[in-house]
């Protein structure tokens, strides 16, 4: 049966434009610390770090001096002599994150958390009749401020890629809306280093090729990009044109769950290293249990006193489903490195190749692959 003209118009019509919000809390860990301790307000604050660790988060007052997350604490202190280090309180951050997720859930069921402090929301359905995605984003930001005392920035657009770019545009405490007709001009104006999916090394490689901005990237054909970057070239070509059909996934599973610890002193003795690894395994398993997940690959991370970083992994046929097995796999991996050639300043242990837990199906550790 031939389709009617009306049916053909409907069939040929483009899919409806989605309305995506990316919400990103402003300097989340540091802002929680400043909120809870008035003496820290207005001061440069680093969460984590201390004597030998790395900065987990930095307040905006600290960022003015160039302090950034993942920076060694000695470097951060050198950049900002008045920097105040505070110990992380992950239970407090998780509690606030739970409050924020509850606010999101009042506006949509389509929520994809990326971490404790950021998430994608699909608000194509205007649940409260606010009239626009901008109005929904403004309502969410207002409620976050009222209910938590913290600020959030948001990006609003028709796809995840541009919404995430937009959320960073007017930080802190900002809102940016990029409509479909504005997308290519907006992308053209940005440096390629801003594009998620293009890491620092790739950005440097692009810059050596004379590709500094989105406008430069838009000049390259799909074949040119695939020839230079393989399968990643397809992604670069698409994002340069604002093409991103990825849906907001409400039940996004983390790729891995891990924990690590930087020590106040270097360790070389086997018994000391195994004792420290047991503590790290306990911290990691707490996180694994909270994620309600299991995984097939255990990975050990070791950083030596000279900052050399190595990792060792072991995979299993069946998922690792209990803390004793998880820790035992870590100890076996550590044994393969003993005796260590130099002092160890950090140990980490993680689980990847994750699956959702199904309590109805009993599992047993299988043979290593």
Automatic annotation (TrEMBL):
Residues 20-199 form the UmuC domain. Pfam families: IMS, IMS_C, IMS_HHH_1. Its cofactor is Mg(2+). It is found in: Cytoplasm. The keyword Cytoplasm applies. Keywords: Cytoplasm, DNA damage, DNA repair, DNA replication, DNA-binding, DNA-directed DNA polymerase, Magnesium, Metal-binding, Mutator protein, Nucleotidyltransferase, Transferase. Its EC number is 2.7.7.7. The record marks 29 as: Substrate discrimination. The keyword Zinc does not apply. NCBIfam families: PRK02406.1. PANTHER family: DNA POLYMERASE KAPPA, DNA REPAIR POLYMERASE UMUC / TRANSFERASE FAMILY MEMBER. This is DNA polymerase IV. It comes from Sphingomonas rosea. The lineage of its organism: Bacteria, Pseudomonadati, Pseudomonadota, Alphaproteobacteria, Sphingomonadales. The gene is dinB.
């Amino acid at each position: 049966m031939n389709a009617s003209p009306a049916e053909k118009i409907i069939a040929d019509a483009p899919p409806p434009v989605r309305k995506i919000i990316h919400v990103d809390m402003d300097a989340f860990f540091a802002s929680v610390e400043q909120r809870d301790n008035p003496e820290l307000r207005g001061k440069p604050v680093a969460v984590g770090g201390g004597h030998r660790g790395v900065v987990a988060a930095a307040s905006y007052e600290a960022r003015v001096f160039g302090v950034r997350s993942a920076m060694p604490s000695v470097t951060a202190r050198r950049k900002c002599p008045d920097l105040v280090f505070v110990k992380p309180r992950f239970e407090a951050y998780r509690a606030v994150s739970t409050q924020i997720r509850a606010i999101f859930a009042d506006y949509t069921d389509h929520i994809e958390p990326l971490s404790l402090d950021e998430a994608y929301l699909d608000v194509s359905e205007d649940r409260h009749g606010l009239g626009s995605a901008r109005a929904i984003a403004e309502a969410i930001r207002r409620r976050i401020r009222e209910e938590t005392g913290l600020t959030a920035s948001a990006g609003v657009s028709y796809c995840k890629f541009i919404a995430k770019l937009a959320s960073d545009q007017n930080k802190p405490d900002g809102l940016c809306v990029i409509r479909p007709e504005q997308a290519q001009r907006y992308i053209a104006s940005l440096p390629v280093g801003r594009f998620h999916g293009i890491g620092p090394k790739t950005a440097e490689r692009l810059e050596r090729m004379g590709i500094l901005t989105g406008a430069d990237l838009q000049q390259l054909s799909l074949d040119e990009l695939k020839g230079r970057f393989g399968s990643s070239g397809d992604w670069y070509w698409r994002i340069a044109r604002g093409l991103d059909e990825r849906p907001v996934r409400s039940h996004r599973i983390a790729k891995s769950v891990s924990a690590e610890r930087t020590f106040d002193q270097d360790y070389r003795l086997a018994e000391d290293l195994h004792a420290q690894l047991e503590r790290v395994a306990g911290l990691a398993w707490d996180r694994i249990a909270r994620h309600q997940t299991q995984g097939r690959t255990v990975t050990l991370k070791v950083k030596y006193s000279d900052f050399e970083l190595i990792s060792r992994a072991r995979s299993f046929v069946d998922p690792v489903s209990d803390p004793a097995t998880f820790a035992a796999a870590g100890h076996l991996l550590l044994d393969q490195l003993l005796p260590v050639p130099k002092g160890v300043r950090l140990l980490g242990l993680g689980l990847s190749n994750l699956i959702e837990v199904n309590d109805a199906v009993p599992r047993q550790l299988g043979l290593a692959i």
